[in-house]
């Protein structure tokens, strides 16, 4: 099978510690990488994420990134109409360098595709909660979440500014984002957290514990013709049953948990639940339209790629068929290789096919490959080879490695070997 790219992400501290040319050359040599991108706005999490220490960083054993800082230059004029302004790194060894330009220079000299990623979060959560509480997502009980609401005009303007300015000021082929959308609620979690006894009804019911029920959402929903007060009233009752707050609610919860009621029946029984999900979907689709238009106005040739990370993205407002006009490609960041169990790879296949059924064949699907040791700390190359072989039969347009900073060289080499064995070639 022919594919367009093998992509890999790099962090600014990777480039500083190992050297940008070394990183790019290592990825190209060991894993056929022809596309690199900078994680230019990174959420707060320890790196490496899974292991205690880096396997090949010569300067530090681990790193604690700042929350949602920017590591490259942006045009402040893009943020004139919002109180939210980009927060740049304050770390001495990072703050004086435009790390995106640094990566671009290396990639271009090697004739590689190059991009930038705006990661899960786009603004420091502590600062946002302190200074901009009116911009935050709210649960149905009014509890503030640590996420900006994409329905607020100021937040929407800030998001547009990030994407427009990133593409306008830098020679990138693509801009990728795994931006957290609406809080999905309950214990749904990320796509790799498998739940053996998960029922579709429970998954659906958990959404009422998510966001957003803020004033901006209320105003937008009413303007779109929804009966917001009825929706909130009905969903509040559902949430009480879901949480089993009172004895009667606890009884209702047991009935739902132990019954054979399908999710469809719940939507028919509580039309407000469907209306709320539909409202969120329309809100996110309009956000993607704004982002897409911002990217294309800055550079019509630049690609907008969304990096989907949830098991059920629909429950955060993302519908693949609805956003099809407003994306160029989707990266499915399924890391089922992390379990070291071939049976878990079935989830990757299902997610890739779901994306394809939504966006069609004119838009690209990029499949992620986990090149980190698995959850038991084993550098199991066989699971990578099995995964690449599986993917080679799914009509994807590229691979994307996650992530170089924690990858062992043997697992990178397994990607290259698996591509050869599966007759997967770049063109």
From TrEMBL:
What protein name applies here? DUF4015 domain-containing protein
Annotated organism of origin: Paenibacillus piri
């Amino acid at each position: 099978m022919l594919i367009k790219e093998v992509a890999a992400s790099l962090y600014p501290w990777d480039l500083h510690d190992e050297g940008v040319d070394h990183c790019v050359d290592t990825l190209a040599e060991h894993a056929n990488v022809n596309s690199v991108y900078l994680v230019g706005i990174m959420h707060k999490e320890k790196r490496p994420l899974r292991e205690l220490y880096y396997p090949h960083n010569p300067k530090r054993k681990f790193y604690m990134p700042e929350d949602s800082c920017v590591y490259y230059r942006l045009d402040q004029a893009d943020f004139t109409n919002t109180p939210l302004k980009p927060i740049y790194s304050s770390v001495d060894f990072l703050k004086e360098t435009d790390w995106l330009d640094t990566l671009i220079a290396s990639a271009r000299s090697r004739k590689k595709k190059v991009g930038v990623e705006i990661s899960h979060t786009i603004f420091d959560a502590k600062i946002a909660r302190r200074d901009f509480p009116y911009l935050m997502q709210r649960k149905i009980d009014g509890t503030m979440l640590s996420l900006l609401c994409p329905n607020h005009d100021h937040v929407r303007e800030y998001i547009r500014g990030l994407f427009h300015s990133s593409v306008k000021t830098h020679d990138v082929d693509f801009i990728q984002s795994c931006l957290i959308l609406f809080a999905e609620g309950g214990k749904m979690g990320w796509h790799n957290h498998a739940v053996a006894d998960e029922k579709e009804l429970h998954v659906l019911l958990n959404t009422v514990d998510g966001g957003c029920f803020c004033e901006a959402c209320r105003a937008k929903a009413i303007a779109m013709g929804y009966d917001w007060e009825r929706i909130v009233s009905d969903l509040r009752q559902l949430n009480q049953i879901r949480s089993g707050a009172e004895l009667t609610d606890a009884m209702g919860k047991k009935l739902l948990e132990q019954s054979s009621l399908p999710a469809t029946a719940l939507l028919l029984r509580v039309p407000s639940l469907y209306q709320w999900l539909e409202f969120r979907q329309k809100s996110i689709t309009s956000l993607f339209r704004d982002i897409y238009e911002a990217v294309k106005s800055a550079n019509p040739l630049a690609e907008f790629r969304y990096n989907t990370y949830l098991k059920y993205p629909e429950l955060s407002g993302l519908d693949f068929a609805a956003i099809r006009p407003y994306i160029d490609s989707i990266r499915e960041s399924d890391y089922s290789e992390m379990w070291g169990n071939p049976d878990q790879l079935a989830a990757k296949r299902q997610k890739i096919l779901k994306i394809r059924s939504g966006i069609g064949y004119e838009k690209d699907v990029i499949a992620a490959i986990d090149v980190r040791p698995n959850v038991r700390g084993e550098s199991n190359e066989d699971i990578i080879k099995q995964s690449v072989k599986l993917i080679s039969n799914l009509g994807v347009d590229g691979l994307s490695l996650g992530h170089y900073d924690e990858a062992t060289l043997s697992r990178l080499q397994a990607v290259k070997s698996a591509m050869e064995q599966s007759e997967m070639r770049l063109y």
